[in-house]
Amino acid sequence: MSGRVTIDRPPDDSSGGPGASDVPGSTGGPGGRPLSAEEESGARTGRGAGDGGWDDDSVPPADWGRREAAGVAVPWAFVAVIVVLLAGRWVLAPYLTSPALQTWATIFVAICVQALPFLVFGVALSAAIAAFVPASFWTRALPRRPAVAVPVAGVAGAVLPGCECASVPVASGLMARGVTPAAALAFLLASPAINPIVLVATAVAFPNEPMMVVGRFAASLAVAVLAGWIWLRFGKAGWLRNRPHAHEGESKLAVFAAAMRHDLLHAGGFLMVGGLAAATLNVVVPREWLDSVAGIPWLSILVLALLAVLLSICSEADAFVAASLNTFSPTAQLAFLVVGPMVDLKLIALQIGTFGRSFAVRFVPLTFGLAVLVSAVVGWVLL
Amino acid sequence: MSQSLVLMLLGGTVLRISAFSTTYLNYVKPGFRPFLIAAGAVLVVLGVVGLIRDWRRPADTTASTATSTASTSDSVSTSAPASASDSASASAPASTSGSAAASVSASASASGPGSHAGHGGHDHSHVPQVAWLLCLPVFALFLISPPALGSYAAARVDTAPPPPAASEAVAYQPLPADRATDMTVGEFIGRAWGDKNKTLTGRQVRLTGFVVPAKKKNQWYVTRMQLACCAADAFPLKVTVRGANQPPADTWVEVTGTWIPPKSDNVPLGTVPPEISAISVDPIQAPSEPYE
């Protein structure tokens, strides 16, 4: 058994493990203790067998670790990524030319490229809140009673110029600084829909329907405040995943950079999940399906609300898409505009990544239901 | 360390398509360039800062792989916490920042999982699994190098473009009679549908777009995609070309011709694309700015 193991060992294995020595037969622990066949086969066949045993001893000599220092820092997974990239460019790329795949990739990259600056901006703002704004500021700026703080935070959403990708990390940063979660959530829902840039875009897209802008503002703010209040009344703190708190004793810049990296890696990764789903649905779902339901009032509202979830269009652009869906009633278009910035695939993915799954499974249906109801009522009154 | 490299890879790719080429025009509007460059630069800077921090504090990671029998990526990551305790003592002199600071810092490369126990089960030492997805757009850009949306995407949306708002109906200038006028597809459609003065009648225009086959015989569409924000909300603007053979799909062409007024007024606007009677069709290079 022992001899077989020695013979089987590939020659280059000597660099890999401490048990592997250049000279066959001289295998032994650092203390000169000869390895039994059993121990050695454990070392050969898998780490699981070796973990509990000699692995944790001083088997890797101190100098071995130092010698490997440069090699250890090599992030192998990243190296694999680069290798696949370079090799794939020559080997795979000539085959990846199907129009459907290319269209899908174009839309996926477009969603990512378009959302990335907003995400970076939002993450930077959130990190700045975490690093530079003292927690006491928020307790002074917001009303003490949470029920009052919710609408104030909702209206304050008007000052954040950006789309929904920016608002998630900012809301998370606010919570980390002691803002009532319900108020931060009202801000999260309101800011992508009622900021000036989005309202101007809506006015441009609906030049003959100024009430569309009013309706969008009113309905979005109402949904945000209602959702905040409902969360305040029924929400449990345990549903929200806690953010790592800023560490004391570090420079503010270090906290800022660390918070940005953390948020970018998490929120960015989940943004990609949302982008994948949205691009796939964008390519797979034929638009003709939509026109067949445009005439039925209630169904059309639901269908456009669902479409807003699936398409995941940035809130700065969704008004133009809504305007192009002109076979639908204005109320259904309003539902598209109200739901889109609050619930969509990339946003759901971002919220799961930022606040945790048990939060998202409750908050997303709540917001969606409220948004559909409120926009139906507002559309019925105003449009 | 990997997380810094992932950020740098993504940031570098964003810079590559925005600052050093016009590839970004296939995906977003031209005005988006400064934001893309800024975002790419921020990502690269964050990555570099992280790399420098990791470089200065290599002690905690260095000895960890020595325990692995084969230098595979997963053995690197799984063995790090197990050996952190004994390796810290072995290489303490090399640590510049001290073990206390290293274990507290969010970007410490191998602080043990226990230091952030309340944080969803993952520690800061390695790339969170989901962050590897940040490489996906890089893969898509390198391997597929997705082109601007073409005939496949345009053909999927079969409905004609929306009719222009009535208020635009008066805004058009008369066209010169002696030469062909260059015109965007969007303007042509606007003039065809929303122009009280019918300024298109009898005038030669030149449209630039790509070829989309039509279902009916003896006609095809010269098409341009219109963006509101990014390619995900692109909408095809189509003009039916008659009197010319169809070039292969996706060929970029300049179509010179005259507008064919609709034969009856009964067809509601916006259901059928306007038509052009082609005098000449010239293949051209794809423009760097593919959308309208």
TrEMBL record, chain A:
Q: How does it sit in the membrane?
A: Multi-pass membrane protein
Which keywords does UniProt give here? Cell membrane, Membrane, Transmembrane, Transmembrane helix
> Where's it mainly located?
membrane
Q: Which chain regions cross the lipid bilayer?
A: 73-92, 104-135, 147-170, 182-206, 213-232, 264-285, 292-313, 359-382
Membrane: present as a keyword of the record? yes
Give the location in the cell: Cell membrane
Per UniProt, the ranges with Basic and acidic residues bias are 1-12
User: Which protein is depicted?
Assistant: Permease
Q: Provide the species name.
A: Thermocatellispora tengchongensis
Q: What is the lineage of its organism?
A: Bacteria, Bacillati, Actinomycetota, Actinomycetes, Streptosporangiales
UniProtKB/TrEMBL annotation, chain B:
The UniProt record lists the DUF1980 domain at 199-291
Q: Where are the transmembrane segments?
A: 35-52, 130-149
Say yes or no: keyword Nucleus present. no
Q: Which UniProt keywords apply?
A: Membrane, Transmembrane, Transmembrane helix
From what superkingdom does this record's organism come? Answer: Bacteria
Q: Does the keyword Transport apply?
A: no
Name the Pfam families on file: DUF1980_C (PF21537)
Q: Which residues form the signal peptide?
A: none
The UniProt annotation puts the region (Disordered) at 62-92
- NCBIfam families given in the database record: TIGR03943 family putative permease subunit
The protein's name in its UniProt record? Putative repeat protein (TIGR03943 family)
